[in-house]
Amino acid sequence: MSTEPTEKNRATAAALLPLVGGPDNIRSVAHCMTRLRVGLRDRSLVDDAALRAVPGVLGVVEDADTYQVVLGPGAVARVTPEFEALVEEGRTRVAEPVTADGLAERGAALKEARKARNATPFKLFLRRIANVFVPLIPALIGCGVIAGLNGLLTNLGWAPAVVPALAAIASGFMSLIAVFVGFNTAKEFGGTPVLGGAVAAVIVFPGVAKIDAFGEHLSPGQGGVLGALAAALLAVRVERWCRRRVPETLDVLVTPTLTVLVTGLVTLYGLMFLAGEAAAAIGAFANWLLAAGGALAGLVLGGLFLPLVMLGLHQALIPIHTTLIEQSGYTVLLPILAMAGAGQVGAALAVYCRLPRNGSVRATIKSALPAGFLGVGEPLIYGVSLPLGRPFVTACVGGAAGGAFVGLCNQLGVAFGSKAIGPSGWALFPLLDGTAGMGVTVAVYGGGLLVGYLAGFAATWFFGFTKRMLADLDTDAGAGAPPAPAGPASAKEPVPA
After folding, report:
1. PROSITE patterns, alphabetically (predicted)?
2. The pTM is what?
């Protein structure tokens, strides 16, 4: 087997590490679907311009907690382990600099100052909740695709002997997703992960059907991921209370017992019922929103999603998507939100056509468009539309138009959604499911993408540039980046070469 891919990923990691300050400047390393997320001790040691010039880097982003390097789907999952290994090797091989404490203090001060300016407790809490669900996305995608394949085979009457096996593979994870949510919640909020999983397992245990709460029998799975989230959060609080008060000699026996017992009873006689009601309300509201709001609801959702992606807050919607998938088998919101990516693609195509002499921008668009068609919006957001300003707004117009189309069709009776979260754009086709049949569902979703492309293109062509912007940008930029003109979404990052 060729080692070229591994060597390429390690070379990318090796190129990135010195540009973010070296191993001793790294506090934490993680990744999501498209970004390498690095916690830094000293932000001033980062060379932004050089990072953008590294082959394979699609852009850089900052939030209150991390410095993020956009590498794209697939690539980030391969580069991150190599990056982590290099960080560990560097720390082992090189003695900590004399100024390490000073750098740590300075980095902490910068972090706190940035948090005070740009972060709120609510946003930070949402990010932590998102961190619970993001590790589950690969399993949701895999099981969703298998479920779609199984449904296709069932409808066609093919391979009847294989269908039960595929159904078991596709459904097994979803039947126990509450346990994984409980485990990750306890881990994220500072508890013992397995205790979080243990109290969440109560929710899916078949024997809960024999228990009465609030005058009715409980149902296995009642409350779903919301109940698991609440139960694990409570378990963390109970565990911390016990750690402070139970003598060390008894801690290993008493603390886990009390944590599981107290949290388990509260879950059975309170949280399952309350979370079940909340989950039912979320499902009812989502269905009502599209059935009653239709085009207007789709317009708002599709138009506002790109700003959420830009801020990284779109991950806060993961619990809602997961709850809807648990209830009906698919989330009706994701196809509408996916229209934002279509508007972004249309806007990028218009920029490409409007700047025929700017080779740098056109090269960036050509390299980022394949990911854009597959629903990965960050390369086009941070490499094209956001730095240019006005095209970011017109991309949102395209997303709003596509969302309005899908919302209108939903209002007219074509209700459908995605069996999993994570993919978007063309990659969402294998995950679609609905009440009107696969042919109609695919046609409506494809129509929404087309509307988004056309509206984003038209809005950007006619309103995406001022005369001054065209004069400045439509020049032979060579390998350099164009200037970032002021606009409604003023540039945070220059367009990478």
Report:
1. PTS_EIIB_TYPE_1 (PS51098), PTS_EIIB_TYPE_1_CYS (PS01035), PTS_EIIC_TYPE_1 (PS51103)
2. 0.70
